[in-house]
Design a protein that fits this description.
Blueprint (H helix, E strand, L loop, with lengths): L6 E6 L2 E9 L5 E11 L9 E18 L2 E7 L5 E9 L5 E8 L5 E8 L5 E8 L5 E9 L5 E8 L2 E10 L6 E8 L4 E6 L8
Antiparallel strand pairs: 1-2, 2-3, 3-4, 4-5, 5-6, 6-7, 7-8, 8-9, 9-10, 10-11, 11-12, 12-13, 13-14
């Protein structure tokens, strides 16, 4: 009733994997529980919980360190701190960076985000020293109506994929999109069709 995501569930063969979320009064996460579940109903569209096995139980402490910065302390199943995250926001409250530090392994990860004047994301990047130096980046371009036109995906400054979206001029729905694979030098074209039902 507060328009917040409280649960996701997807079917993984014979099992379902569910994620449950709890928040504090400022909509920041306090708890995330991942569980493997069994549906006792014979109808897959009518989920009835049977056995539930908790895979992970994460708790968070949210500390506001300044007007536009929040420190998140991540606790494991034993209630011990395993990671700290510093999140920074701009004047429009857009997330502009996250810096993650793992306590035991000295692994650091950083994400950066850029936006246009309309508040749409135009670039996001991720870097990590986990398993060597990794740098991943994606850039986005939009048309005058704000529709996404292209998305370019890079890894260590090498262009991997370029996605282009084509819209219907009448209703502005996506009618097809192209994925140019620059490594394998191939193009995959996907056409989209719509069908509507009335009750």
């Amino acid at each position: 009733n507060k328009n917040r995501l409280t649960m996701t569930r997807f079917n993984d063969g014979n099992y379902y994997e569910s994620v449950y979320y709890e928040y504090n009064e400022t909509n920041l996460p306090l708890k995330i529980v991942r569980a493997k579940e069994i549906n006792t109903s014979s109808d897959k569209n009518n989920f009835q919980l049977g056995m539930q096995h908790v895979l992970s139980d994460e708790r968070f402490q949210q500390v506001k360190t300044s007007e536009r910065q929040i420190k998140t302390i991540c606790l494991n199943d034993e209630g011990r701190t395993y990671k700290e995250i510093i999140s920074s926001f701009d004047e429009a409250n857009h997330l502009i960076s996250t810096s993650e530090s793992y306590i035991s392994t000295w692994i650091n990860q950083e994400s950066l985000f850029k936006y246009n004047q309309s508040g749409q994301m135009i670039e996001k990047s991720f870097s990590s020293n986990s398993g060597g130096s990794i740098n991943v980046k994606a850039s986005f371009e939009y048309d005058v109506s704000g529709n996404l036109l292209t998305e370019k995906q890079f890894k260590n400054d090498i262009l991997l994929n370029e996605l282009s979206y084509i819209y219907d001029e009448t209703d502005r729905r996506i009618k097809s999109f192209l994925n140019r694979d620059h490594i394998n030098k191939s193009i995959r074209i996907t056409k989209v069709a719509y069908k509507f039902w009335s009750n």
